[in-house]
Every structure is written in C-alpha cells, then in structure tokens.
Amino acid sequence: MGCRVLRIINQRSIKKAIFFGIVITYTLTGCKTPFFENPEHDDIRHFQQQWCIMQGWRVDWETVVKPCVGKVAWDERKVNSEWRTDAYNSFIKKWEIQPAGQFSRFFIQSVTKEGIHKNFGGDAWRVYIREGPASLAPQVLDHDDGVYEVVFLVMEPGNYSAQITLDFTLCDGLRDPPEDWIIQGTNQAKHHKDGILGYIGDDYILEPIGGQSVVAFYVPENTHNTQKYISVVKASTCGITCNLLQNGFGRWVNGVWQPFIDNSPTTAEALDNPFTKADALCIYGDSIARYFFRSLISRGICERFFKKCIEAYMKINQQTYQTTPTNDFNKLVLQHMSEFLDSSDLSSNHSVFVFNLGVHFSIWLNFTTYKDLIDSVIRMLRSRFADEHNNKPIVIWKTTTSIEKEKTHPKNLTHWRFHTHQRLELFHKYATNAMCKAGIPVLEVYPMTASYPNGTLDHVHYSANAQRAAEDQLLSFIHKKLKNKPT
C-alpha cells in the first residue's frame, strides 16, 4: 500500500489546520517524510528564534535579575554555604555545535564541592571564545535550574577554544554594595580601605571549569551559504523597538570587526561625500569616553567634520559626594550633565551630544539607585528637548564597554569588590533598554569590546582599534541626520 495523505486544498484550510493544531498528514506503509516537511525551513525557523534571543539579550535585564531577586543585598551573603558552586566539579553536560553560519550552544551544569548537581541559578559563568578563526562573545543564559546555556554564532569554520570561568556563586556577582558605600571611598568613590566589608577573600572565585584553562571544539564548514540565514533576519526587529546606529553584534576576524549585519558606509566612504561640518561634538562620560574622544581627535575626525569638539569629563568633586547622602547622589549627576547641556555650544540643532553613565556607576551604586538615575536622565532630556521648534542637539547614548575584572590584582581587593562583569552587564542592559524605549539613538559597543581578541589594556580601557568601527558608525549616523535637518 502506498502513502495516503490528507491534502489541504486551499489556503484557508491550511490556516485552520495550523490554528487548531491539526495533524495534516499521517503515515502508512511506505511513508518516510511527512507532507510539507522541509528541513531547511526548520533550520531557518530555529535560526530566527536564536537570532531574536541574541537581539533581546542586550535589553533583557529582568531575566538577569530573576534568579537573584531578594538575594543581592550585602547582608544576604552566604559565605560558608554548602551550596557554593565548585568550578572543578562543574562540567559541560551537553554540546550542540552546528556548522558555520548557524547558532551553536553548550550547557554548563553547576555542581557543589560535595558533588551535588545544583537545581537553582545565581552563578556567574563567564565565557570567552577568542582563540580560533574568529573571536566572539557568547551569551550566557541562566535557566535558574543549575544549568547555564552558552549561545554563540560562528561564521568562520575551524578549531576554536573557549575559556569558561566561574567568577561568582550564590548571586555574589550581582551583589549590591552597602548603602553608604559611595561616601566611604577616598577618590572618585574608590580606594576603599581593605577590611571595611569584612572577609571577602572567597567572593571572587576566578576558577576554570573542570580545572581546564581552555576547552576545545570544532565548528564544521556549512555546505550552504553562511550568509543565507542572516539575509532572512536582516530586516527583523524581533519585536524590539530601538534606534540602533548599528545592530552591534558580530565578531573579530584577523583584527577587524565584522558585524553580522553591516549596512553603514565606512569613514573613508564618508570622507568622499560632501559633509557640512556639524557645529559641535560633545562626548560626555568617564575615562572610557575620554579614550573614545582622543581617538576621534587622533584620526582627524573632529577637525574634518566638526567646528568644535568638547570632552565633557564626568567628575564630581570628592568633597561633594562624601558629604552627600547616597539618595541625593543622582541629583549631583543630573546637575553636572545639565551644566554641559546648557552650554551655548549645544544650543544648535547641528550639534551632537554623546553620553554614557556606565562603569563607575556599577562600582558605586546599587541597582535600584542606578535605575532611578537612568530614568531621571531620560525625563530631564525629554523636558529639555520636548519642543520640536527649539534648537536642540542630536543626543546619542553610547553603551558602556565590557571590562576584564580578572586583570585586577589582588583579585579580592576591597575597592574593586563591586566591579564585576555581571553587575556591569546588568546596568548596561537596563540603560540600553530604557534608552531604546525613550527613542534615544543607541551606539552599541558592548559586544564589540567583549569579543575584542586583545582584551583590555588594563581591566577597563581598550586600545583605539577596539572601537574604531563604532567611530565610523557614529560619523555615518551624524552625516545622515544632518542631511535631514534644516540649516
């Protein structure tokens, strides 16, 4: 007997069958493939799902905090808990390595020193994939069941090595500082005296999984065009509304940033096009912003494209913050920002204000205070620039760069206690999500720096090359915006 198939005779019938979950084929002797089954379509659908998970990663701060809700206050630490994860006993429980051009993943099982497989989350596993044909930054997803999913998109086939490190356990990576932490510092709210937090020698673990410094794996070549799936999702927003200067995700190949989606001209191309100089470019932030500013200067971009460039260094007087209650600290930051925005240099609609409030704040503040700060900044910007007829600068949020806490020495120094990958990533996600919702353009540099093969120069700052592509994206965006603005 052959294979009998329930045939769908029109489009309406197809929709009804799918809606009600009706099986539209059934198999008798001789049937091997269900009607309408297409493995390639399944691959594309899976790629779309993983792509949207990656896009959501940059703004999904709630998933990060979920395993640690109610557990991050400083007095909630469990220093001697039998449930602390042991990096040596933990292991990779499953590999799903796909051909180049498709998402791969593996799963980490956290295990205690006594060999118990944990069934809840809160560990901070950090993964680098920097050795191989490309250098990339995977996303680590805490499933809150003791298992951590590591997802990454490899476009270049070949042999790779991953560094898999346990930084913290039991939510210590997201741990908030004490309420009076900021006023206990001696310089820029840092350099806290050792011992004021009590014993923290075991907080920062910094141990590789299974005692292995690297874990090797092989990504096979794809028989299809590796760009095929990218082209399918290129126009997809994944339900996320965000005015990104560029998508932000990609990898480094031979020292050059290669975005997964690239639709902006290079600086060289911009130089060949007529470009009316903008009135002023103001870069506001900390020392990371200063490095970015100086790179623009050294490349001649300021001189060529702007009438004036301003470095607005966010520095609050030491005496001021040491005599200011923590709850009022945000007011000082808003006042400091307002002073620069009041400048006559930024009173033109052909001026540009690029700002960030990142690394220092993840060291200084608890997460709730930081959320309030970001929300307050957005309200302040809206109130200032609500009138469309007023001259106002182009305002751009530049995300924070990644850090490498592992380069701080000694590793459990008191004043770097809250300087963690996990806190910075959480702060980054919240701020990016808020800026996206507010309609403020976002220059995304976190994945670009997190995957930079040479890492940081110290533990915070990068060489100019790490953000060179972001500089090009910024210039291209400004160029487009100015063309549409009245003179």
Distance between the terminal alpha carbons, to the nearest Å? 78 Å
Strand content: 15-25%
Question: Number of helical runs?
Answer: 15
**Pattern of helices and strands:** HHHEEEEEEHEEHEEHEHHEHHEHHEHEHH
Overall, the morphology is: globular
Q: By helix and strand content, what is the structural category?
A: alpha/beta
Total beta strands: 15
Average of per-residue pLDDT values: 86
How helical, in percent, are the residues?
Answer: 25-40%
Oligomer state equals: single chain
Question: Numbering strands along the chain, what is their spatial order in the largest sheet?
Answer: 12-11-13-14-15
Radius of gyration: 25 Å
Q: Indicate the low-confidence ranges by residue numbers.
A: 1-37
The main sheet comes to: 5 strands, parallel
InterPro entries: Ig-like_fold, Ig_E-set, SGNH_hydro_sf
Protein name: SGNH/GDSL hydrolase family protein
Provide the fold topology:
Blueprint: H1 11-19, H2 39-57, H3 61-65, E1 91-96, E2 103-109, E3 124-131, E4 139-142, E5 147-153, E6 158-168, H4 181-184, E7 207-208, E8 215-219, H5 228-233, E9 250-253, E10 256-259, H6 267-271, E11 280-285, H7 287-298, H8 301-305, E12 309-313, H9 318-322, H10 329-341, E13 351-355, H11 359-364, H12 367-384, E14 394-398, H13 421-438, E15 442-443, H14 446-450, H15 468-483
Parallel strand pairs: 11-12, 11-13, 13-14, 14-15
Antiparallel strand pairs: 1-2, 2-5, 3-6, 4-5, 6-7, 6-8, 9-10
Helix pairs in contact: 10-12, 12-13
